[in-house]
Task: structure prediction
Amino acid sequence: MNFWFELLQNILQIAISPTTAAFVLAAIGLNVHFGFTGLMNMGQAGFMLVGAYGFGVSVSYFGLGFWAAIAVAVGAAVVFAIILGIPTLKLRGDYLAIVTIAAAEVIRMVVKLAVLQDITGGPSGIPGNKYRPVFTELSPLPDGKTTILGITYANTGVDDWWTRIVAWGLVALFLLITWLLIRSPWGRVLKGIREDEDAVRSLGKSSYAYKLQALILGGIMGAFGGVVMALPAAMQPDSMGRPMTFNLWMIVLLGGAATIFGPLLGSILFFVVRLLLTSLAGEFIPSSLLNTQQTEQLAWVLIGLALILLVVFRPQGVLGNKKELSFNV
Amino acid sequence: MSDAAVRSNAHIEGYPYDREALRAELRTLDQVPGVAKRDPILTVDRIERRFGGMTAVNVAHLEVPRGAITALIGPNGAGKTTFFNLITGFDQPSNGQKLIGGGDARWSFNGKDLRRTGASQAARAGMVRTFQLTKALSRMTVLENMLIGANNQPGENIFVGLIPPLWKARERENVERAKDLLARFKLDAKINDMAGDLSGGQKKLLEMARALMSNPAMIMLDEPMAGVNPALTQSLLDHIQALRDDGTTVLFVEHDMHMVRHISDWVVVMAQGEVIAEGLPEEVMTSQAVVDAYLGAHHDKDLGDDDALNTGFMRAIATEIADEVEEETR
Result:
């Protein structure tokens, strides 16, 4: 009985963790790119890096305040999107995929450079205590700890309620923005571009401008994801590499591309299912048969298997509308 | 359904609403390629498109009369669709103006110079086209397809789109207009279906209706009849003529000669990228140049017959071609 209770608590903990929120934010951005506009962005992790380092370096190296640093992070994502978009958005979708994956890697390599050790911290990144204070000092919460549903965190601190409130508040805000935009005529044009760019151009809409706007919007969301990812921990270049991008893709496809809540559900499933698998395996399968490290790997294998089954039997994802979007973009 | 709502084109000053008068006027023109019209809506000068060594389009001068239904005909590979693409900004002429320097191709629509504009700007200038292979937005509903055709929706700006009160009123007007147009094209029962589920002919109709959402000054139809159920052909022809009567100039590419003869006021014939003839439908189609272009000047000779295809005959063809070239360069 105790095991189940603990499991439930762990699930709740991971479901509301800032890391999950960071994945949701970046996945919402990716969903704007791929689900609604049909842009094959294979470098969403690059946007996260640009956002995280834009924020972290502004604070730790240039000594900027919180809001100025956020503005730098957003500005960096916009510039990154424009640099990527201008040469590639006039070409076919595949080019964007290649360029984004390369650009994300370039960003990661650059922040890892030993030459930039003083600014970006090189391969070890920036420790959280160098930039977190500007965020924690904004907290209106009183000192002390709070327990909700059996989960206890400090109100304000390293891994705290304040970060969770802000992270999930951002998720709510971005969900609201996507919901409003996708129902608007602007969102309709995006869907039109996803369906047939030439048709939309023949009707007098500049598909190029719309695609660039979508790339920027989704990129900004990714940048916020990067900031949220870095806030409770440290900033590390390798935590936002290619695996991050692929996991985000998995989340979007799992939850349902071109749906509002798909990225949210996808992220939570992505973390919770893995936790469930490892916990259950740890409890019921003797460690002589499968040790902790192996269960972790097995969980990934099963996630991969689930994705294959999903593609075959439910290509529109959990929430998707089959008529609207399957994997055939 | 209310016809008044569909015909929301206000009375246009100088538009030849009287079709008989327009035809009488066209009848007085010289029937030669590049002849000047009294009131051209589209004027094209020296537009050229080469693919490698092949010249797909090379039009020296062409004027499309305002208010007329103009047919663009020609055998396969004559460059009709490429010409459409060039005019509407989907393709750039080889002698087009570049950022620095460039060629002397020029064309203007409704008094607006279009040399340096992309496809979307050409459409906003009032020249909306359809495609030979229909481009319905498959995974969107028929209504959404229609609404995307309107170009007066402020909510298509990302910031305005965030605030529904700023665009809802226009949206309601557009939905009304879309419903009227769909009723006119007998698609009103399909309004909430996915466009991808329509039949081929219905997609053609949808594409045409969608193009009309923005009240274009000229609509360019690329093979509107291909794939349309013959029973629907007559009503489609009526729609096209009604469009003209309401103030939209029509330019269309078509292979169906019956349709061309039936509804067009003026016919332009292209072959091998050039305009080889222009004139009234009843006359141009019987002209020698057109018959040659479609059937070949030696269509009554069996070129597979070795006896017929002797050296003498081939020399005769060669001289003939040389003469023609000389004639053209003169």
